[in-house]
Write a sequence for this structure.
């Protein structure tokens, strides 16, 4: 479903050029479980951002579900993100003034789903992620693991085909991190394509396909 | 994103930052209140003046001796020649015109009033029986100068004078002296306070012949004429001028003023004044607009991560822009509504404090205040909203 050909992303720092991604060729099929590892600054986040259409490559082509999405307009990109991509971040990125339920509801509001329908879907998600008790709590009143569960519930409420997680356990202790990973793996078992960036060798090795990066290039890709 | 959800979402945002929202709403409210109150004052002044004039009578035409403007085209004829006086005879002729319902000649002077062992200087009006209805005045006691008895020595006292001289309320029938002449009090005017400059509670009115004798003159100060029908005012004015020119040997040496003309001039001046004041008050709305812009810019930088997140979960730039614009619109609309209420309360207080000033805010000013506040808020929100919409989501999410 994801097809990168010669994707390159260059950042300019003063007069220095940083090749965050250097002619990446990559193909990920629907339903895969992929981990991406590599030292800091190797381009993992940049890769994920381009996959999720948050960022555009400087050169190369990107095909998503058979459609070339390299040159989409901002509005079209937003639509693809909404319909196909779910993001999970290391720092959760919940809106602090909204409750857990309201945070989960956000993508439904953006899509224009009716309030009654939204309510039902949010209830269901809260239940699925064991957050029913915490529905009316704000992020500040939640533990790290609960916050990441809210974030995952939000990322998956529109049933995206691909879930992109950038160090989802980075801010969690080992035990909670494993639980969160298990949750993501459950989603993978249910059919979602799961792509996880992680620094944790043990968590990374749980993936069926493991990609290693260095200096903007893929140095290993093992099934 | 649906409109309803946009409205709801941005409204919730506003309630989540109470201090910030309160300050903006306050600034907007004060701006709108200023517009409402100042225009209420301006329009109140206009209504006051219009009312005062109407109480004198809008069907009124006043003739006075002399030209108000200099007639430049015939210098030899007018130079060195004092304008001809207005006489009682002139007044009688004008009174015959078909458009005129009634007329009253008028002389004004000052003299000493003595009686009941009191003495004071008073303003003396000399006129006829018609003076009362023409000037829309009322009597409290007794009768006014009786028609056909111009020569009998009657006097009508202003309310305050009657009280001063005859505190027991038995003024009617009493004898008083005006200068060296003896008069009998025939009536007392009802209290009416100050109208356009002089206090009619402190005047006396005597028959015109006595006044002319008292002031040793044959000329009149004014001729007051009441038109039968308001629509006849301009034709009456024309007829009056023609009559006077004819009677004054072809000389156009009088001035004819209609109350209407004076009234509409005042009306125009005060309307312009109100508009000007509204404009000045609107500046405070512009200041509030700058505040909205500033606070919204701060909000965009504070909520950078949230904007990045919204983009990551699929909000297009247009949604983000609309959210921030709606927020600005909510703030200014709420401010405008509070300002509207505040302005109307302020006007009410003014009316309570100064009952004679009808300080009602004009409808147009209230509407304009709200519309301008809303427009200012939205315009002020444009730049912050555009900035939010253009944020690069990757940078926004990483807090850069
Ligand atoms: N906005 C930017 N401006 C300039 N340089 C950038 C920018 N974003 C990323 N880079 C650079 O691109 C390279 C790749 O960054 P990236 O964030 O993808 O690394 P990463 O593998 O995710 O690292 P980490 O494990 O620390 O998150 C780094 O050298 C980084 O400094
Ligand atoms: Mg990274």
């Amino acid at each position: 479903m994801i097809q990168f050909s010669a994707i390159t992303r260059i950042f300019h720092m003063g007069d220095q050029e940083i090749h965050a991604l250097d002619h990446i060729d990559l193909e990920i099929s629907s339903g895969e479980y992929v981990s991406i590892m590599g030292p800091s600054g190797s381009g993992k986040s940049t890769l994920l951002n381009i996959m999720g259409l948050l960022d555009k490559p400087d050169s190369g082509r990107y095909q998503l579900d058979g459609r070339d999405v390299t040159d989409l307009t901002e509005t079209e990109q937003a639509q693809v993100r909404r319909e196909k991509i779910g993001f999970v971040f290391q720092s959760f990125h919940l809106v602090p003034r909204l409750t857990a339920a309201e945070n989960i509801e956000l993508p439904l509001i953006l899509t224009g789903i009716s309030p009654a329908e939204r309510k039902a879907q949010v209830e269901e998600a809260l239940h699925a992620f064991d957050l029913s008790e915490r529905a009316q709590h704000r992020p500040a009143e939640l533990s790290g693991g609960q916050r990441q569960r809210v974030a995952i519930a939000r990322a998956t409420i529109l049933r995206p085909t691909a879930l992109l997680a950038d160090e989802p356990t980075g801010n969690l202790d080992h035990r909670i991190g494993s639980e969160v990973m298990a949750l993501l793996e459950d989603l993978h078992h249910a059919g979602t394509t799961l792509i996880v960036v992680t620094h944790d060798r043990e968590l990374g090795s749980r993936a069926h396909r493991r990609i290693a990066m260095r200096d903007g290039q893929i140095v290993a890709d093992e099934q | 994103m649906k409109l309803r959800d946009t409205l709801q979402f941005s409204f919730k945002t506003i309630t989540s930052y109470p201090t910030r929202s309160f300050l903006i709403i306050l600034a907007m409210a004060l701006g709108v209140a200023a517009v409402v109150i100042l225009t209420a004052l301006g329009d109140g002044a206009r209504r006051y003046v219009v009312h005062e004039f109407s109480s004198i009578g809008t069907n009124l035409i006043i003739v006075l001796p002399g030209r108000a403007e200099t007639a430049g085209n015939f210098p030899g004829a007018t130079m060195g020649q004092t304008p001809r006086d207005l006489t009682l005879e002139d007044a009688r002729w004008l009174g015959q015109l078909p458009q005129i319902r009634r007329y009253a000649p008028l002389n004004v002077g000052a003299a000493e009033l003595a009686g009941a062992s009191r003495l004071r200087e008073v303003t003396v009006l000399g006129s006829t029986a018609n003076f009362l209805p023409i000037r829309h005045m009322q009597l409290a006691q007794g009768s006014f100068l009786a028609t056909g008895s111009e020569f009998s020595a009657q006097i009508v006292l202003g309310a305050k004078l009657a009280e001063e001289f005859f505190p027991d309320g038995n003024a009617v029938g009493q004898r008083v002296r005006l200068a060296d002449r003896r008069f009998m009090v025939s009536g007392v005017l009802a209290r009416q306070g100050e109208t356009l400059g002089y206090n009619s509670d402190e005047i006396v009115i005597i028959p015109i012949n006595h006044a002319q004798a008292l002031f040793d003159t044959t000329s009149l100060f004014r001729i007051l004429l009441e038109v039968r029908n308001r629509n006849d005012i301009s034709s009456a004015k024309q007829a009056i001028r023609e009559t006077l020119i004819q009677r004054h040997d072809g000389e156009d040496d009088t001035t004819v003023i209609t109350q209407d003309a004076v009234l509409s001039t005042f009306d125009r001046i005060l309307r312009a004044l109100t508009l000007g004041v509204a404009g000045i008050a609107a500046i405070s709305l512009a200041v509030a607009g700058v505040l909205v812009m500033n606070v919204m810019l701060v909000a965009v930088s504070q909520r950078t991560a949230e904007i990045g997140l919204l983009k990551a979960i699929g909000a297009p730039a247009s949604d983000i822009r609309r959210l921030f614009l709606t927020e600005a619109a909510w703030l200014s609309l709420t401010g405008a509504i509070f300002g509207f209420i505040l302005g109307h309360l302020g006007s009410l207080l003014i009316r309570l404090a100064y009952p004679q000033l009808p300080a009602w805010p004009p409808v147009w000013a209230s509407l304009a205040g709200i519309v301008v506040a809303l427009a200012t808020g939205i315009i002020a929100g444009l730049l912050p909203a555009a900035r939010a919409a253009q944020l690069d989501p990757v940078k926004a999410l990483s807090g850069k």
